[in-house]
Amino acid sequence: MDQQIPTSETLKSVRYEIRGQLAHRALELEKRGYEIVSLNIGNPGLFGFRTPETMRLAMIENLGQAEPYCHQKGIFPAREAVVMQQQNRGINGVTADEVFIGNGVSELIDLSLRALLNPGDEVLVPSPDYPLWSAAVALNGGVVRHYECSTEKRFLPDLANIESLITDRTKAIVVINPNNPSGAVYDEKTLTGIVELAERHKLVLLADEIYDQMVYDDAEYIPMATLVKNAVCLTFSGLSKVYRACGYRVGWCVFSGELDRAEEYLHSMELLSALRLCSNVPGQWAVQTALGGFQSIGELVAPGGRLYQSRQAVIDRVGESRFLSAQRPMGAMYAFIRLDPRFAGRFDDQAFALELLESHHVLVAPGSSFNTPYTDHFRITTLPDTETINVVFDRIETCLEQHA
Hints:
Layout: H1 21-31, E1 37-38, H2 53-61, H3 76-88, E2 99-102, H4 104-116, E3 122-127, H5 131-139, E4 143-148, H6 159-165, E5 170-176, H7 188-201, E6 204-208, E7 232-238, E8 251-257, H8 263-275, H9 281-284, H10 287-292, H11 297-301, H12 306-320, E9 324-326, E10 334-339, H13 349-360, E11 362-363, E12 365-366, E13 377-381, H14 386-401
Parallel strand pairs: 1-11, 3-4, 3-5, 5-6, 6-7
Antiparallel strand pairs: 2-8, 7-8, 9-10, 10-13, 12-13
């Protein structure tokens, strides 16, 4: 066999198992004719959720203007709509110049870290995390320091632990709220504590708020930027989740706070944005309509709405199980479920996920995929209808019965 082409050393510290080996195995099984229930990714369109019709019409009506490249930061109507949303939330001092439109939040996470980090710079990232954050830090020469969000604290960040990790190389704190994978929604006391740490240590706040309007019961989403005065805050959001438009690949990043300290950072972001020319233009024409129109997500997450009912079905089935437990998810579209301690040492999250896939044709994401030090959790999306959720939990119970 010929010698393999050597690849980048930086990839050795990168993990993204949500679309990793288990997902590849699921595809192989599907090719052999098996029907796999895929709960590893929060992809609303695969579960019958449609993008609002008004957004599709806005794209169609502006296709003629979507053929040339646009400004590297994005089309003005889209950026101005984001500014209006920020102002309505009480975030002042932001103009269209501080807004960047990207090919989803994923691209903007990469660009923001590339513009910020030098080799060896440290970024504080929650554990569990959305693994793209840890991967993007590593790919851009940074060092990830994971702070604790334990199940004992309802997956809320431990402020003392965060502060203990801060060194003279720390550049930023990542906050994912509402949280993926845990479904936690952070209260004002927690967010204020993080802001105070960032302000005291001159750290950049990176607020991933892609699930901003997806909250349940009495949970309240508080935009982190509303609490920031003496720090630089980057807020990330987009069309993928709340507006059920993952395939449009439209996200935005908003700079706020101490903007006089962010001038070089903004210039660097604009340079990187220019190098990739611009993001997907047709999808950008849906932003103004999305943010300015009727917010249909409200009906979906309210009692009786489909997202609410599906989440409740997950909560009910976990509560009935002899083998599972979970913190009640208060936001986003996931449940982070714990295996009973009786399985410890002989049936971890990876083994469980593999057997559930091979023998019961259900694909879930092992909890350790989210950079946890423990191996007794798994994540599912709560997007399926209640009938499908009940079928899935019947199969999970059968799988665990065999190992109890």
